[in-house]
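Retro notes (design track)

What went well: tokenization of the new backbones is finally stable.
What didn't: we kept losing track of which sequence belonged to which structure.
Fix going forward: every design gets posted as structure first, then sequence, in one message. First example under the new rule, 149 residues:
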């Protein structure tokens, strides 16, 4: 059977309007089947991906809405994982610390926190993951080396 699948699989998405059903998003996949005289037939599959596309669009809209809310906060806001790696942050944070989005994303975990404050912050991050909340006052380092309480 493997000799039938010699051609390259071609895939693309399309939208089609079906009478009585309406518009549906489809993933079209097809490949040529070669025989002794060349391509003898083409095998194709249509997959209805409408629900997946709608879910992706809803998720994208929700993410954009959440980002706009976070960016509208007047204070510094950012999210980190258990190691202190920054996952997301608002534009005000970038403005205050002076790093561009790309620069800040490339920093090591807690590189923007004064070294003496890092152990406290790490313990408070762990406490937050264990209990659901914690409070810490630390100093952030700006791109130009200033300390911000």
């Amino acid at each position: 059977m493997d000799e039938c699948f010699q051609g390259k699989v071609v895939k693309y998405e399309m939208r089609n309007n079906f009478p009585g059903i309406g518009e549906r998003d489809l993933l079209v996949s097809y490949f040529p089947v070669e025989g002794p005289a060349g391509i003898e037939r083409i095998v194709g599959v249509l997959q209805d991906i409408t629900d997946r596309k709608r879910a992706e669009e809803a998720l994208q809209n929700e993410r954009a809405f959440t980002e706009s809310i976070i960016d509208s906060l007047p204070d510094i806001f950012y999210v980190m994982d258990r190691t202190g790696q920054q996952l997301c942050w608002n534009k005000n944070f970038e403005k205050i610390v002076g790093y561009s989005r790309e620069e800040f994303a490339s920093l090591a975990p807690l590189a923007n926190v004064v070294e003496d404050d890092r152990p406290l912050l790490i313990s408070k991050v762990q406490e937050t993951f264990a209990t659901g909340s914690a409070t810490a006052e630390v100093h952030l380092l700006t791109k130009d080396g200033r300390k911000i309480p």
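Added context from the reviewer: The two ends are 68 Å apart (CA to CA).
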